[in-house]
C-alpha cells in the first residue's frame, strides 16, 4: 500500500475501515431485542410481547430502554391503554423484520447442514476394534440416531489415518503405540496382546515361560506391517533384535487366528480376539517373560476438528462402556 493510501485509511472514520464489522455488534440491537420490538408492533402491548418471548415484563422494558439508548431514539410510547410505536420505532421495526427474516433463513440453512451431516456416519477402524468392540457401540448409537446411515471401513491403523486425513471418514479407531501424526485422539480401551499356539505345539505343553530372546528368534504368524498389533510387537522385541521374519503374514485378525488354530505356529493376537478359542481349548495362551505387550485403543479424528453430531455421540458411547470393557 502506498503512503497516500495509508494516510487516507488512517483519516477515514472507524465505520469505513476494518473496525466497522467489530463495532456493528455495539451499534445494532441483538435478535432478541428486535423480536421483542416486532412483538410490540404486532400485539400492541409490551406485556403480551414479553409473554410471547417467555420473559418478564420488567425484563422486556429493560430491553426496550437499552435498545433506545443504543440507537439514540425513542421507539415505544407506553400508556395505560398499551404500547405503540413511535414514528422512529415503526421505521426501525421495518428494518428489524428484514434482519429477523434473514436470521430465520440463516437458521434454516444451518439446520439443513446439520441434518445432512447427521444423515450419515463414516467410521474407519483397525481390525480388533472393528470386529470386537464397534458392533456393540454401533448398536447403542442406533438407539440415539436411528435415521443415521453408518458405513464402516476396516483396515490397519495406517489405513485408518489415511482415510481420516483424506476426509473419507468422520471418526477412526486405531491400535498402535501412539496416535498417528495429524490426528487428535482419546483412549477408549486398553488391550493386551497374547502369544497363542494350537494345542499340539510344544509351547502349549511348556511349563517355563518363553523368554524374549526365544520369542524374537521364532518365526510367528503375524499381522502385516502397519497394523497396531505389529507395531506393539516390534517395539516390545526391539531390544532383542526385533521379531524374526514372519512365518505367515495376514492383513486379517481372523486369518491369523485360523492359521494358529490350524497348527501353523505361534501367533500374537489381541486377547479380545482369542477369548472364545482359549475357552474352548482350540488355542493355548503361552506365558512370555519380561515382554510388555499391552496397548491403548484410541478414537482418532483430524487435529483441531472435534467430532460433531453422530460422531461425537459415538465417541461418548465408547467412554460409557457400551460394547466393551470399562476404560480408564
From TrEMBL:
TM segment ranges: none
InterPro entries: LysR_HTH_N, LysR_subst-bd, WH-like_DNA-bd_sf, WH_DNA-bd_sf
Gene3D superfamilies: Periplasmic binding protein-like II, Winged helix-like DNA-binding domain superfamily/Winged helix DNA-binding domain
UniProt keyword terms in alphabetical order: DNA-binding, Transcription, Transcription regulation
Similarity comment: family membership: Belongs to the LysR transcriptional regulatory family.
PANTHER family: HTH-TYPE TRANSCRIPTIONAL REGULATOR, HTH-TYPE TRANSCRIPTIONAL REGULATOR CYSL
Protein name in the entry: LysR family transcriptional regulator
Annotated organism of origin: Streptomyces tsukubensis
Organism classification: Bacteria, Bacillati, Actinomycetota, Actinomycetes, Kitasatosporales
Amino acid at each position: 500500500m502506498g503512503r497516500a493510501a495509508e494516510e487516507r485509511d488512517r483519516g477515514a472514520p472507524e465505520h469505513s475501515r476494518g473496525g466497522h464489522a467489530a463495532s456493528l455488534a455495539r451499534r445494532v440491537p441483538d435478535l432478541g431485542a428486535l423480536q421483542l420490538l416486532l412483538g410490540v408492533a404486532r400485539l400492541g402491548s409490551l406485556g403480551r410481547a414479553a409473554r410471547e418471548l417467555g420473559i418478564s415484563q420488567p425484563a422486556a422494558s429493560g430491553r426496550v430502554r437499552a435498545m433506545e439508548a443504543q440507537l439514540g431514539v425513542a421507539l415505544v410510547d407506553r400508556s395505560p391503554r398499551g404500547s405503540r410505536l413511535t414514528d422512529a420505532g415503526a421505521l426501525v421495526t421495518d428494518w428489524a423484520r428484514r434482519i429477523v427474516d434473514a436470521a430465520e433463513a440463516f437458521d434454516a440453512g444451518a439446520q439443513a447442514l446439520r441434518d445432512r451431516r447427521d444423515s450419515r456416519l463414516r467410521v474407519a477402524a483397525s481390525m480388533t476394534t472393528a470386529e470386537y468392540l464397534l458392533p456393540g457401540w454401533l448398536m447403542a448409537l442406533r438407539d440415539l440416531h436411528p435415521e443415521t446411515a453408518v458405513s464402516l471401513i476396516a483396515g490397519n491403523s495406517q489405513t485408518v489415518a489415511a482415510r481420516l486425513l483424506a476426509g473419507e471418514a468422520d471418526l477412526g479407531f486405531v491400535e498402535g503405540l501412539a496416535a498417528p501424526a495429524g490426528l487428535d485422539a482419546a483412549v477408549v480401551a486398553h488391550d493386551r496382546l497374547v502369544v497363542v499356539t494350537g494345542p499340539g505345539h510344544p509351547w502349549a505343553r511348556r511349563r517355563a515361560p518363553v523368554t524374549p530372546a526365544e520369542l524374537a528368534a521364532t518365526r510367528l504368524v503375524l499381522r502385516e506391517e502397519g497394523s497396531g498389533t505389529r507395531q506393539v510387537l516390534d517395539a516390545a522385541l526391539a531390544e532383542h533384535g526385533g521379531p524374526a521374519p514372519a512365518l505367515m503374514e495376514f492383513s486379517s485378525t481372523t486369518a491369523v487366528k485360523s492359521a494358529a488354530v490350524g497348527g501353523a505356529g505361534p501367533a500374537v493376537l489381541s486377547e479380545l480376539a482369542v477369548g472364545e478359542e482359549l475357552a474352548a481349548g482350540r488355542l493355548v495362551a503361552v506365558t512370555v517373560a519380561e515382554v510388555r505387550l499391552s496397548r491403548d485403543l484410541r478414537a482418532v479424528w483430524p487435529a483441531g476438528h472435534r467430532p460433531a453430531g453422530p460422531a461425537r455421540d459415538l465417541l461418548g458411547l465408547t467412554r460409557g462402556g457400551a460394547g466393551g470393557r470399562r476404560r480408564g
